[in-house]
Amino acid sequence: MYVFAVTQLSHLLIHDLTITGAAHTAFLLLVVWWAWIYTTWMVNWFDPASGKVRLVIVSSTLASLLMSTAIPGAFGAHALLFAVSYVALQIGRNIAATALLRREHALRLTLERISCWSLLSGAIWIAGALMPGSLRLALWGPALLIDLSAPIVGYWTPGLGRSLTDDYPIEGGHFAERFQSFIIIALGESIVVTGATASDTGLSTPVIASLVSAFLGTGALWWLYFGQVAENSRRRLAQAEDTGVLARDAYTYLHLPIVAGIIMVAVGDELLISHPDQSLTTGGIVMMVGGPALYLAGESLFRLRMIGSVNTKRVATVVALCFLGLPAGSVSALLVSIGVALLLVALALWEYRALRHNVDIETAAVALTSGIRTPHLEADFYNEADVENLPERS
Fold first, then answer.
1. What's the rounded Cα separation, in Å, for the pair 247 and 241?
2. DSSP 356-387
3. Structural contact between residues 30 and 148, judged by C-beta atoms closer than 8 angstroms
4. Which of 43, 75, 106, 172 lies 20 to 30 Å from 356, alpha-carbon distance?
5. Would you place residue 374 in the very low, low, confident or very high pLDDT band (cuts 50, 70, 90)?
6. Which residue in 126, 134, 1, 136 sits closest to 62, CA to CA?
7. What's the CA gap between 264 and 262, in Å, rounded?
8. How many angstroms separate the CA atoms of 300 and 280, rounded?
């Protein structure tokens, strides 16, 4: 259901590719993301096989469907439906989760604090929806700020105190897999929408070439996310002493630019398929070039938080994408897309080759230290110096 919301956001942006349209889309993305985040945390805490938990999940899904449907008119005629659906989702889920726990349960107090914050922001969301359009953001802005800042301040509530991150531990492996599933479904949905647009536009030679280019770019983004860092991060989260703080920082907050990048890529692909022979506007260039750059920047921040290192290859590719955008307005959208796809595919191959090299060196290290002869790893290719300088696996 939340992937449907992401698709709605991309359509909203493509129909209003202006600074105002981008700001509205970014704002609504934060709201949608926050709704999904809290649902993900809850599912991680509770047993989905329980009938009561399933009822909460089904009710949350209905609320998210109504919220997603209202996205195109969230700042207009459907503002009240959007706000009521979001508030009902947040308050209803949080209070229901609180009620499902015994008074002495370790999570009970944290959920009570979360519910209080939801009630506070919910009242402001509804009040904002009842205001004229020019005044709506004056209330919705603070309401969203309350939602986003709540985890950072530990949901501090008068009379209830403050929650520490180790007060709400999670099952790290399952939690990370939920995010990985979201990313892969969102990328897959963008490919489906691109294919449908191509079919509607007409399968001319430029459209087919554009479809191939868009697929290669999206496929490379998928490859780059589901690499060694994703697997090692999942394992790191599962083994962390304080899973709450790591999950909050790396997944709740730092996955946002990755999802924003996916939306921008989807918009860029639709612009490409619609007019492959025409040059892009400034907004189109930002989508087509800036989307992958933001995606890679988000992944780099995620990696930095999870394993404490920066992937220089990805940083270099972000810089290259920025330079690619400089002359993009003077060539066709198809040529820009091909340039982006080539950079992303080259990065994926570059990282894959480096990974294979490190894996082979590790195999050689085992062979050299154990005395086992490996014919395909001879000493003239892998020597003791390679083994001694073996980089730490990230």
1. 12
2. HHHHHHHHHHHHHHHT---TTS-TTTS-HHHH
3. yes
4. 172
5. very low
6. 1
7. 5
8. 28
Cβ neighbours, 10 Å, residue 158: 6
Question: What CA–CA distances, in Å, run from 292 to 3, 257, 316?
Answer: 19, 10, 13
Residue 312 CA: distances (Å) to CA of 22, 208, 349, 373: 29, 34, 15, 35
* pTM, two decimal places: 0.85
- Residue 35 amino acid letter: A
Q: Are 31 and 86 in contact (CB under 8 A)?
A: yes
**DSSP secondary structure string for all residues of 119-176:** HHHHHHHHHHHTS-HHHHHHHHHHHHHHHHHTTTTTT-BTTTB---GGGS---HHHHH
pLDDT in tens, 200-241: 888 899 999 999 999 999 999 999 988 767 777 878 887 888
Instruction: Express each pLDDT in 315-336 by its tens digit.
Output: 999 999 999 999 998 999 999 9
For 286-316, how does the pLDDT look when each residue is reduced to its tens digit (9 = 90+)?
999 999 999 999 999 998 998 888 889 999 9
Per the model's pLDDT, the better-predicted residue between 96 and 231 turns out to be: 96
Structure tokens at 135: 């005044």
DSSP string, 66-78: HHHHTGGGTTTTT
Contact criterion met (CB below 8 Å) for 109 and 81: no
DSSP state of 250: I
Check: CB of residue 27 under 8 Å from CB of residue 257. no
110 with 161: CB under 8 angstroms?
A: no
The amino acid that residue 298 corresponds to is G
Q: Which residues contact 246 (CB under 8 A, 6 or more apart)?
A: 172, 236, 237, 240, 305, 306
DSSP code of 279? B
Contact 129, 136 (CB under 8 A): yes
Q: What is the pLDDT at residue 347?
A: 93
Asked if 274 contacts 197 with a C-beta cutoff of 8 angstroms, the reply is: yes
Q: Tell which residue, 340, 339, 203, 187, has the closest CA to residue 266.
A: 187
